[in-house]
């Protein structure tokens, strides 16, 4: 009985929200690694790979951001951690969008700003994912 009550009191991330949140890390990391490969080889295809991976990270991050905004308006989601988490997701998505616009230019024109933005967006994605899982956990988990 007591463990049932504790489980009901602690509201974690929905598992689908966790999938969207954790999906941003490998996609933005892939974009960063593709930018690193392009900066060392100057093969244009690496820049194209980075563009697509960043777009995928924006899709996953957009759904995670939308979910966190909806959770902010729920009665139990108005804590300081929820606001910080949502702001980090918003910053991740904003920098990622600017990174996607930078990568939409010619491959030569995208560097070095594209590489710098890829590093920043990857670090923001890591920070928001860490806060999301460390502070909220997964709903239904122990």
TrEMBL record:
InterPro entries: DUF2231_TM. This is DUF2231 domain-containing protein. The chain crosses the membrane at residues 12-29, 49-70, 82-101, 107-133. It comes from Noviherbaspirillum album. The keyword Protein biosynthesis does not apply. Keywords: Membrane, Transmembrane, Transmembrane helix. Pfam families: DUF2231. Residues 14-132 form the DUF2231 domain. The keyword Transmembrane applies.
């Amino acid at each position: 009985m007591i463990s049932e009550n504790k489980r009901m009191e602690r509201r974690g991330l929905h598992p689908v929200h966790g999938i969207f949140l954790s999906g941003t890390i490998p996609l933005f990391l892939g974009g960063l690694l593709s930018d690193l490969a392009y900066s060392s080889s100057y093969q244009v295809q690496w820049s194209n790979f980075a563009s697509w991976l960043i777009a995928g990270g924006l899709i996953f991050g957009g759904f995670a951001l939308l979910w966190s905004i909806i959770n902010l308006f729920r009665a139990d989601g108005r804590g300081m951690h929820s606001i910080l988490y949502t702001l980090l997701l918003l910053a991740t998505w904003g920098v990622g969008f600017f990174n996607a616009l930078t990568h939409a230019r010619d491959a030569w024109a995208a560097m070095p700003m594209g590489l710098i933005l890829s590093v920043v967006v990857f670090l923001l994605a890591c920070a928001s994912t860490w806060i999301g899982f460390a502070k909220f956990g997964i709903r239904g988990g122990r």
